[in-house]
Amino acid sequence: MRKLLFFLPLLLNAQDPIAEDRGAAGLHRAQLSAKTSIRAMHIAAHPDDEDGPAITLLARKYGVDMSMLILNRGESGANLVTSDFFDALGALRTVEVLKSAEYYGARVFFTRFIDYGYSKNVGETFRQWNREEVLADMVRIIRAEKPHILISRWSGTPQDGHGNHEASGILAQEAFAASADPKRFPDVGPPWQPLKLYVGTRNPFDGYTIKLSTGDFDPILGRTYAQIAREGLRFQRSQATGGAVSRLGPQFSYYRLTQSKVGLADKEESFLERIPDGPNSHPFPAPGPIVEARVDPSNPLSGPFAAFRPAETFSVAVPGQTFKATVKLHGAEASKIELIAPPAYQITENEPGRFTIKVPESPPYTAAYWTRDSIREPKYKLTNNFAQPLPDPPIRVRVHHAKGVIETTLKTSTVDSTQLEHLNDLAVGPPITLQFPTEAGILPLTKRSHKVQVTVGSNVNGPAIGTVRLALPAGWRADPAEVPFAFQREREQTKLSFTLIPPATLAAGEITVRAIARYNGRDFDQSFQPVTYPGLKTIYLSKSAVHRVRAIDVQVRSGLRIGYLMGSGDDVPEALQQLGVPYDLISPATDFSKYTTILLGIRAYAARPDLPANNARRLEFARNKNFGPFPYSMGRNPEEVSEEDSPVKLLIPTAPVFAAPNAITLKDFDGWVEQRGSKFFSTWAPEYRPLVETNDTGQKPQQGIWMEATVGKGKWIYCALAWYRQLPYAVPGATRLFANLISQ
After folding, report:
1. What is the pTM of this model?
2. Contact 422, 535 (CB under 8 A)
3. All domains in the chain, ordered by first residue
4. What is the pLDDT of the chain when averaged over all its residues?
5. Which of 428, 378, 414 has its CA nearest to residue 111?
């Protein structure tokens, strides 16, 4: 049975409800919603796939109850905003698409499955994902939401662009029948039969049933549906989507009706044709009273200008903490105000709307409920909240008044460097947090020590003093054995350094290091990493503070000095340090003459406008080092190899780069992460020698991945292998290859 409160968090948990959900526009949407009981679900592969204009039109023109089923959270996409990758990037893309969905007017749900990387064909996707398990997740969500209409963004054909897209189109069509079949997945809810299934055709030439005019101007909203959707899409900045401002004028979406229980049609004017309809017993709320639920600042501001100054609170509550909160209802009189929390919380109402709250000593943390042990795993393990985009808040606020019930969350307040106040949902986390900079580290067998750093942070609203130690396997020791920390306030961080000493005899292999903090007589060993940027909600990722040290038979030529130009963020410099190679993080304006090699980080040209401006200096460095480019081309869509286990052939096995300082064999291409590489040469001058050949399934052999040219006394090398994926995870063979590459 659907309940009114199911709808409320989308609106009321927003930092500020968007204009289309306030005042007259919000009331108009509520009135439209009350007139129709039709529900529709839009299905896509990952965030930014969605047809926002179509979703917006259905929700805001017709009042349709819209939901979005997204198969994965986009863990392996690009990131032009922060240094978050993999699971942290998935969390960032989650809060980005949630903000977009506020503009579309839709709720968002996810399966357990993960964006493992780009696939050219659906075969690789179904090798990574268990097809039946993905379908079961989709059926479970469909049966819970009970949509009358399924709208697949993708057609389920190779023209969808890549494997994940195609898989989502195929599975959407399978889910139409499977969700209604009581014999399929009987343990994921009672059967539900959607009445229609549409697939996106992307253009008018592929055949369509509906031509949806999303460029129509809505006089009540004051914009077109496409404009509203584009403003929402602009929040998905990590992928650089929605950058262009949507313009007025005709815009269309095209869909083909492929399955129907209410009759097929060659052409339709609306998705809603032939769908039985009636009044909605649980419509979108009409705008009304507003609840203000705030954690009280420890030191309330006073004086004549207090109302103009932001009053900061703590961000994260910790075990055993006591704090106060105030809840007010504006625009109506509250008959009852409740704070709802697990039984171990102690909540006292001091007077109407004013509460004292004590957090239990061992509370569940407000962290992502989806986790995995390794980036190689294709799906998450869930602790609760199946399909929901966010973890449950620790405390919910429920306000009763004459016309209904409003539910929301407590807000905390932070103040940025420009003295602007930002409100965030209350979270509960560990008092002390621990995190290694990288998941894995490189220890050459020739080295007798390995340096690691642990980032230690405090969530304590005041002083916090303790120590950190490392748990190591037998035969290993850390110097120092223990390091103290002392914080004065919340959100302080420090980096503590340890040197690991291996046993006298060290063989190639892997050991696990765990960081443990001692604070107030208790041990803590978890991270609690906030993932967000201004304007978005925050997701906290929590996992054990573990670092894997991989002892690798790898050597590097002496005398190297590297200048590294950081791109959009990666951990390659950390790998250089572990290999024992001196490096500096430099800018394009740095004097390059003292370096043997200049390395550019991932997407450096896209992320750094100062790099093209100083391009002439970089080319001058190349000329002075006896390097020089010859003609080549990549084309508008350069080739890549997305299968990390693709077959590899050494085209010139005797090439010096494969001989020293490490003898390279095909075994060094085993165990890679996510992909081989991207942005290959497609044509090149005869001065270049290709060194490696590889290809995805069904792709012709590619030789433009690793090119070498002799120029005067030196060499110019282009190597498009995915170092930024391999080195942070200390992939042994990739580490040996990289050591040879920079040693040339």
Report:
1. 0.90
2. no
3. 4-260 (3.40.50.10320), 290-359+394-428 (2.60.40), 432-552 (2.60.40.10), 567-743 (3.40.50)
4. 92
5. 378
